[in-house]
Design brief:
about 300 residues, four-stranded antiparallel beta sheet, 10 helices, Rossmann fold, alpha/beta, single chain
Length: about 300
Amino acid sequence: MTRAQFKTRDTCISCGSGDLQRLSDGRFDQGPLREFLLRDPWGESPVPYLAGKLWRYVKCGTCDTAFHANVLTPEWNDINFSRWMSAEAIAEFERTHGGPDRLFYRAMHYTKHVLQLASLIEARPLRVLDFGCGNGEFLAICHQFGFEAVGVDRSTARRDKAGVNVFASADELDGRPFNAITLFEVLEHLDDPSGILKMLRGHLAPGGILILETPDCSGVERIETMHDYGCIHPLQHINGFTPETLRGFAERLGFEEIGKPVSHVTTSPVKVAKTEARRVLGPLLSLTTQQYFRLTG
């Protein structure tokens, strides 16, 4: 059997430094990682293709950004997103990990973002690009509010399932600037997140809004538990951001962090009170890996 092929990222994905410190490493076919891979739903299992292959998780000595140094080559990443992560595998993962109310709470989550964008941007109709949009659920909600919203997603399975306009590549966009660009749980998957964000910056109107959301990988330096695996899965979550490194990543690319507006999508007075408390105490609370930025310059 042909084994999967990997390439090495030997400079920081955020600042470009070559000062990389090893956090952990191992073989895909050994230890807890092998067991976690075997438990996951797959179309075609990647495990046989990974025999003898090495993973290596590193941290930049200059800016503290952590990431996997060894990542699949473009050809094998295409296999990852088409054969390994098939439509059936994605559906099974969402069924087993999301719970019965997954769609309900995701819709609430996306609706909050729509209301917050509307409060930040005066232009109407507001134009939104959701990069890495999956099945297009956020786009569908944007359309309900009268936004012009399009998406980009590399997964054929997800594009086929989407009921809205989703492109395979940003090259297919019409060139008109967007008022906002969103990346919900996307940066952790990208071989070259800086290059992608530089490209997307060219599609954003002056003063436009960028929303970044990733898993919070604070304190995760090795793969020993399911939580570790969920944060820094070496085939899927190849970049491990923390609140601080996510902010630094965006600021290096010409974005300025702004306060996230508060919106209420609930009938619970308790949840409203908690949200309002966060509004007042915001400066005293810890950062999260859900952050809003504005394009400067």
